[in-house]
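Please, structure for the following, as tokens.
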Amino acid sequence: MSRPPTPLHLHEVLQTLRLEGTIELFAPHWEESAAAKPSVRPSFLQPDAIRDCVRLGNLSDDVLPALYETAERIASAPALLALAWHCQRLLCEYPQYEADQIRQWPSLNSSLGERADAFYLLVALAAIPRIRAAHAKLGIPDDISRASCGRHYPETLWRYNQHHEGRIGVFPGSIYWVRNYVLNHLYRVGRLEYMIRPFGSHVHVYRHTPTRQVIALAADGTYFDDKGLVAADDDSSAQRATLSEQDGYIRGLAIRPSGYATAALCTLSSDEWKPVLSPGDLIFDVHIPSGGQMSLASCQQSMRHALDFFAQHYPTQSPSAFACSSWILNPQLAHIYRDDSNMVLWQRELYLYPIPSGDRSGLRFIFGRDDIDIATAPRDTSLRRALLDHLQAGGRLINGGMFFLCEDFEDFGSQIYQRYWRANAASLDGVGRSETKEKGWE
């Protein structure tokens, strides 16, 4: 009777693969992985399993030859096999292993050449059977399970291809996101994706009990520039927001639903204005998959279905709002692109607010990479042309944030927040007392 092979020590593996400087990245749980490693080829490296995962991952069969070849090379090299087995376990079975460590996983060029990052695509695809099994155990509908499995892989493969045309693979820094599906946090429900998380943005939202009007106030200590956007760190002229609640009044800097802070200190009566969303409250964290066809109707349908889906499968959690931050929520988009675009139509249904941002946000999603040359970047779509024209004219591309309160969902489609603001808060008199002259940032 033959004995199973003796597990390789980590330093042996990394020395063989010329990755000696990465021992701290791979040391966690190495002994556990080595003890659990099967004596035969793991299923995630077997052709039938690879084919099934490629199809569930919504990838073309065109990637199969490269993945079959890479799997064969991994299976025939003990050091590569030990590392591949360990990586897929770190990704899928150890949530305490930090995402920042996954982002730092090294290239395997020395061992696999142009197939180096196909190694990481195989590791990422290994998550799909785990996702499917967990979904089946939870009774997740098959259409949602399949849609969730097939969301991440095509986009990450496309981004990789923008840097390495003709090669098959993914950047190791992009696969950590798969963990959200493995842990049953993230689901695609129709056009959009959702996971329940604490609200992490620095705004406080209040509702006027008699009229149900909603207003957002900036968190204490937030700095704004003269346009009403979150100021850069080196902006010496920035205005500091304050927020306080005392003597029966809430005092803070109001934020317009169009996504800009005002310059007016607003005073609200605590008897009439009640908090409905604060940092730390549970929200549906919305993620926007690529793929177009983001019509207002498809977003509304997705959000409605999400309310029903999470109420059924996560009944003990009760998020109070949908929330998101994205380049798609850039409040300038109507002027940069088209005011009748699907993105802008969706924006108008939401309560937008400013967030910290760089100057070239969204390029990775639109062009597949951040480091584009705006003079030579492709101008093959109307969106690309509009954004490049804006950058060439010296403009910024910024991120924005949004929320939409769940209890307001029946009014989705009526631009409820902007409608309230236009009707009652042109000068903030409709929501409280303006204590300083408003500059009209817009």
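Confidence is low (pLDDT under 50) at residues 427-442. The two ends are 78 Å apart (CA to CA).
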